[in-house]
Design a protein that fits this description.
UDP-N-acetylmuramoyl-L-alanine:D-glutamate ligase, Protein-Tyrosine Phosphatase, Chain A, 2 domains, eight-stranded mixed sheet, six-stranded mixed sheet
Length: 442
């Protein structure tokens, strides 16, 4: 099987949709030797910030000399980005070999009825995400990782990643998203996210919504574990936050602080860094050898594409994967702090199930002009069917092709201003391809 054949097979599994539950992945993992039980791990859940937090954690562990697996989703350009060891994406040849191996196991375990026409059974067959997760765990074992940092896909309780018994679980924050699967309130969504809390797991959270925090606290009490709430346990203060990076001091309440640097932009990333710091210190209580110097190096070296990623030029281009109202609020705070309010051309595209009205309510007033576009996804919202956009934006234009939308935005934006591309990671992915091989600075 070639890499292109493997990718075609994996993407073909998307016809089985989204299925929250652990039965399929448990069967599949058992058939390949339960690789998820062969390495210690950190599991990172939440709504926004979980990918960045996972990247911070993996970078710190690598700086400490450990061999580290990192599993995140979705990818921006290539499937291989989802599965990394020591910062290197899985090789295409490994994807092909592992997919070919799994394909035969799946065919034996989950035979598809010979129906005419064939009718996929979403309950009886593994999904794309389930198979990708098993593939990642197999790769980590064969790469002999010392630790794996695993990002939850959606929710937590029934997410395929929740088969692992993590030494530390991190819940970054809770916001409304995927309500059709997770619930209509912060409390209901928090209950799903809290499903990664298990007996014996050390738990860190940066959740600030009282309703959600109460649910997580209750889940920890029921499992007999201690919750480390970074907002109540730590004090931190940002000293510098600009387009070159951020510097902040942090310490446990009432104790001396230390000064740390990160290259990721936006004050929300400081909270993610503090959560990663707390998780690492908990990991040290169960035997990990990680110096304070390794923590400093790991935080400083962390990079994470598509999140306030800068393409220098005149005008500056800013890519950000904000895909829900909470992400839009964080993006707005960054643009206002960096004095871009009123100096932005916004390139905006969303998926159909997203609360785009709330997002444009935050971002539209900052823009001189908005170019609505279409993400490269079957679930993309038609930009021609966003009729209320004019309520929040002074001037609207529509170009369905992302590359054309960015070209127009750059052409009409003053050199000292900025083009901001956001609304979906699918839009960011298309933007990265459109911007070609320009060197990006995170």
């Amino acid at each position: 099987m070639t890499y292109s054949q493997a990718i075609a097979y994996l993407y073909g599994l998307q016809r089985y949709g989204v299925k929250l539950g652990l039965e399929n992945i448990q069967r599949l993992l058992e058939a390949v030797g339960n690789p998820h039980r062969q390495f210690p791990s950190i599991l990172v859940g939440g709504t926004n910030g979980k990918g960045s937090t996972a990247a911070f954690l993996a970078s710190i562990l690598k700086a400490a000399g450990y061999r580290v697996g990192l599993y995140t989703s979705p990818h921006l350009l290539e499937f291989t980005e989802r599965i990394q060891v020591d910062g290197l994406a899985i090789a295409e040849t490994d994807v092909a070999a592992l997919t070919d191996e799994l394909r035969h196991v799946i065919a034996d375990l989950f035979p598809i009825p010979n129906l005419q026409p064939p009718t996929p059974n979403p309950v009886a067959h593994p999904t794309f995400f389930e198979v990708a997760t098993v593939l990642a765990f197999m790769h980590f074992v064969r790469s002999q990782v010392d630790y794996a940092v695993v990002e939850v896909g959606m929710g937590g309780r029934f997410d395929a990643t929740n088969v692992i018994d993590a030494q530390v679980a991190v819940i970054t924050n809770i916001a409304l998203e995927h309500e059709e699967y997770l619930g209509q309130t912060l409390g209901a969504i928090a209950a799903e996210k809290a499903g990664i809390i298990k007996e014996g797991t050390r738990v860190v959270t940066a959740v600030d919504a009282p309703e959600a925090l109460a649910v997580i606290t209750d889940a920890c009490q029921k499992c007999g574990v201690t919750l480390f709430d970074v907002r109540s346990a730590y004090d931190w203060r940002v000293h510098q936050s600009d387009l070159s990076g951020q510097q902040f001091s942090v310490g446990e309440k009432g104790r001396p602080t230390e000064t740390l640097d990160i290259s990721l932009l936006g004050r929300h990333q400081v909270i993610n860094a503090v959560a990663a710091l707390a998780a690492i210190r908990l990991l040290r209580t169960v035997g990990a050898t990680i110096s304070e110097n390794s923590i400093r190096k790991g935080l400083r070296r962390t990079q994470w594409s598509g999140r306030l990623q800068l393409f220098p030029g005149r005008p500056l281009v800013i890519l950000d994967g904000a895909h829900n109202p909470a992400g839009a609020i964080a993006l707005r705070a960054f643009l206002e702090e960096q004095r871009f309010a009123g100096r932005v051309t916004l390139v905006f595209g969303v998926l159909q199930d997203k609360n785009w009205i709330a997002m444009l309510r935050e971002l539209g007033p900052l823009a001189k002009r908005v170019v609505l576009t279409r993400p490269e996804s079957e679930r993309a919202a038609d930009p021609h069917r966003l009729p209320e956009a004019e309520r929040f934006c002074p001037k609207i234009e529509i170009l369905e092709d992302v590359a054309e939308a960015i070209a127009l935005a750059k052409a009409v934006t003053d050199p000292e201003d900025a083009v901001v591309v956001t609304g979906s990671l699918f839009v960011v992915s298309a933007a990265l391809r459109a911007l070609g091989k320009q060197e990006a600075r995170l």
